[in-house]
Amino acid sequence: MMETSLRGELTAGRLPNNGDRDLLKAVEKSLRLSSTEELQDVKSYLLPAMMNDATIKSDIMKLKQLKEYNADMTQGNAEGRTALHIACCGGNIEVVQYLLTIGANVHAKDRFGHTPLIDAIENDYHEIISMLRTCGAQLHWEPRIISDKMCAATVVGNIKRLQSYRLAGANISQANFSGQTPLHFAILHRRTKIIKYLLEYGADPRCIDMLGQTPADLVKIATKLSKRINEQSKEQSKAELLMLLDL
Asked: Which residue has the higher pLDDT, 244 or 76?
């Protein structure tokens, strides 16, 4: 019950802003902790919550104080979320820079399998993505899964997300499970800006999907289909006009 109670209070954000040392001593005294192991267990719940709280508030001074108290800056909370995860998700460049300076783990995964790099990508924080990459962060997802996500971004015209994946080291010509690349989808959905962007950064127009079609083939198919639709539209308009004229 004590574990649940402590986590509930911390999650609700009722931690004091000052006196972290006094808080730990008070907890130690109230729980009558008698061993170093017991105190360490309490710290393992309190300190990550304190670090994440300071990160959310962009309180670098508090993070420095916690580090002086021997807080492990790579330790995650109950969901495996480290201070670096929180900072990358919130787009706090100064906090990210500080955490990287003191050796925060760029490869740490939360319980969902997300690294700080994934958090930065999914929020399109390009500067943070570049900082993480400089410190050795890499995409750990299977390449075809990454391609699926890039293709999904292409369908809705989210060029910023494609930029995020490219900055993170993704291959923009990577095929998904159907052999299709973002360029295939850009052509199918007539995303002109994305087509130009992909070609500018080296997307391969010769990639063949499972149906044996390249992006160039899709251009030809789309052109023929467009002509057919236009012809049908003209014929329909002509028929409607004749009906109106009662001819």
From this structure: 76
